[in-house]
Amino acid sequence: RPKPQEKSPMSREMESVVTASGLWRGVVGCDEAGRGPLAGPVVGAACLLLPTHKVIKDIMDSKKLAEKKREELYTVLTAPESGVLWATTIVDNHRIDEINILNAALESMRLSAEKVARQLC
């Protein structure tokens, strides 16, 4: 099985080609948290790195970062001058009961991505 690092160059290459075409302004990345617990909300998040974004060192899996480092990176990433557009969406337990946890996770990420897209306008 290939390591994630081995996949990155191809995805970066694809992103560069698509962005250079002028048809896209970037790639929105999405993720969710909360699918594992039996009760409670699911939170979706989305972000887009603008062409002007600053290179931010030490970005990696947040579970591998110390709490202090996560807080420092949060401050950097959410600063207006960071060149990062981001949004989050919380889907509550009532909605999860209506549409199931998988669809709630997908909905939270879709709504977050739509919020990021509106920031581009």
UniProtKB/TrEMBL annotation:
<dbReference type="GO" id="GO:0032299">
    <property type="term" value="C:ribonuclease H2 complex"/>
</dbReference>
<protein>
    <recommendedName>
        <fullName>Ribonuclease</fullName>
        <ecNumber>3.1.26.4</ecNumber>
    </recommendedName>
</protein>
<dbReference type="GO" id="GO:0004523">
    <property type="term" value="F:RNA-DNA hybrid ribonuclease activity"/>
</dbReference>
<dbReference type="InterPro" id="IPR012337">
    <property type="entry name" value="RNaseH-like_sf"/>
</dbReference>
<dbReference type="Pfam" id="PF01351">
    <property type="entry name" value="RNase_HII"/>
</dbReference>
<keyword id="KW-0378">Hydrolase</keyword>
<dbReference type="GO" id="GO:0003723">
    <property type="term" value="F:RNA binding"/>
</dbReference>
<dbReference type="GO" id="GO:0043137">
    <property type="term" value="P:DNA replication, removal of RNA primer"/>
</dbReference>
<comment type="similarity">
    <text>Belongs to the RNase HII family.</text>
</comment>
<comment type="function">
    <text>Endonuclease that specifically degrades the RNA of RNA-DNA hybrids.</text>
</comment>
<dbReference type="InterPro" id="IPR001352">
    <property type="entry name" value="RNase_HII/HIII"/>
</dbReference>
<keyword id="KW-0540">Nuclease</keyword>
<keyword id="KW-0963">Cytoplasm</keyword>
<feature type="domain" description="RNase H type-2">
    <location>
        <begin position="25"/>
        <end position="121"/>
    </location>
</feature>
<keyword id="KW-0479">Metal-binding</keyword>
<dbReference type="GO" id="GO:0005737">
    <property type="term" value="C:cytoplasm"/>
</dbReference>
<dbReference type="InterPro" id="IPR036397">
    <property type="entry name" value="RNaseH_sf"/>
</dbReference>
<dbReference type="GO" id="GO:0046872">
    <property type="term" value="F:metal ion binding"/>
</dbReference>
<keyword id="KW-0255">Endonuclease</keyword>
<dbReference type="GO" id="GO:0006298">
    <property type="term" value="P:mismatch repair"/>
</dbReference>
<dbReference type="InterPro" id="IPR024567">
    <property type="entry name" value="RNase_HII/HIII_dom"/>
</dbReference>
